[in-house]
Amino acid sequence: MLSAHLAVKLQAVTAGCPQFQWMRRREEWERSGAPCGRIAGPWNRSGNDIRNNRRNLSFLLVAKNDHSDSACFACILLSHGEEGQIYGTDGVMAIKTLTTFFRGDKCQSLVGKPKLFFIQACRGSDFDEGIQTDSGPANDSMETDANPRYKIPVEADFLIAYSTVPGYYSWRNPGRGSWFVQALCSVLNQYGKQLELMQILTRVNYLVATNFESWSDDPRYSEKKQIPCVVSMLTKELYF
């Protein structure tokens, strides 16, 4: 099992969209992800609103930068969204379009390096009602070894951590911020220098699943749950 212990700088970009002039205001604004919470430490290097006419150019320019002396790239997006899409202040962007800028055949200086995307946004309109359980969590683990190759897939070494699973709302507290970002910052602050990334994100999943539940005067929006979703194409273990 290969591992990557990062000792050089991390490139990080954050972007949030506080206003949506083009989109009809939604009820229960707290359900989705206007900028909320705090990205701690090195995760909050820079940020700009995602705008329909400039965002592709902005991400393209970031992808074209020389990342040779960086061991990892991270992009944090906090906005509203639907499945496969994230909203800007005046339009919609496909998440696939965003990540394509950083593929191995598009961004040579990030080839073989982890490219991390943390996305706080709704992915649909379903609610997770939750279920009562007495059983403890399963304890499964799996390791996969890979032989060295001369070529690697252009889609390799991406990780996308979504705040919720496909089809579901992503919740936030108006005062404290989104459940996902709260949990992510808490685990990074406590374990960011000790645990491997997937261990960190598993703890984030656990915190969101067990420590949060919605409350509303309207029973349609009360006592709902949420579970984040991690999609990994990483080829190495990753430590910060």
UniProtKB/TrEMBL annotation:
Stretches assigned to the Caspase family p20 domain: 62-126
Gene Ontology CC entries for this record: cytoplasm
Record flagged with keyword Hydrolase: yes
GO molecular function: cysteine-type endopeptidase activity
Residue ranges of every copy of the Caspase family p10 domain listed in the record: 148-240
Keyword annotations of the record: Apoptosis, Hydrolase, Protease, Thiol protease, Zymogen
Pfam families xrefs: Peptidase_C14
GO biological process: execution phase of apoptosis; positive regulation of neuron apoptotic process; proteolysis
Stated family: Belongs to the peptidase C14A family.
Protein name from the UniProt record: Caspase-7
Species of the source: Aquarana catesbeiana
Native organism taxonomy: Eukaryota, Metazoa, Chordata, Craniata, Vertebrata
